[in-house]
Amino acid sequence: MKIPPYLRKTFYLLLLCFTLGCKTTQPLENIKTEIGEVMRQQSEAWNKGDLETYMQPYWKSDSLLFLGKNGPTYGWEKTLQNYRKSYPTPEAMGHLTFTLLKTEQLSKEVVFVVGKWHLRRTIGDVQGHFTLVFRKIDQEWKIVADHSS
């Protein structure tokens, strides 16, 4: 599978930050707690069937990147539309849980997260993994890139 140049550049940038071990100003444990709380609130909103609240941690921008099985999607509104289309009923949405596996601070305003997601559903469970890039925007952690599979 050929990787598009724009994704390759993003990968190399993330790799460079990992390699250089960017300095932090906030303790990583505090950041992990903050990110964990964002993810907890997201799953809570999902489990209530509230996709708009679930989407609040996502960067409300046309530059938001969501990468899933159908390829890249750009933009907050388009990502919300895709969620609505893929999960049209409470049965399809099920009960969401996240497990955070790794949280790595790339800079004082950028965090890389790896985790697992699981939907318990009466129509059959589904699960997978995700990588998220959070960026501190206006004093809030926002998801600027999401790769879920």
What's the structural blueprint in terms of helices and strands?
Layout: H1 5-20, H2 28-47, H3 51-54, E1 65-68, E2 71-74, H4 76-86, H5 90-93, E3 95-107, E4 110-120, E5 126-137, E6 140-148
Structure description:
This protein has helices spanning 5-20, 28-47, 51-54, 76-86, 90-93, and strands at 65-68, 71-74, 95-107, 110-120, 126-137, 140-148. It is of the alpha+beta class and 149 residues long. The chain has one domain: Nuclear Transport Factor 2, Chain: A. Strands 2-1-6-5-4-3 form a six-stranded mixed sheet. The protein is globular, with a radius of gyration of 15 Å. The two termini are 16 Å apart. Mean pLDDT is 89; it is low at 19-24. Residues 38-143 form the DUF4440 domain. This is DUF4440 domain-containing protein.
Q: What's the assembly state of these chains? A: single chain
Query: Radius of gyration from the CA trace?
Result: 15 Å
Structural class: alpha+beta
Distance between the termini: 16 Å
Features:
149 residues; alpha+beta; 36% strand; globular; NTF2-like_dom_sf; DUF4440 domain-containing protein
Task: Summarize this structure briefly.
The chain is an alpha+beta fold and 149 residues long. 37% of the residues lie in helices and 36% in strands.
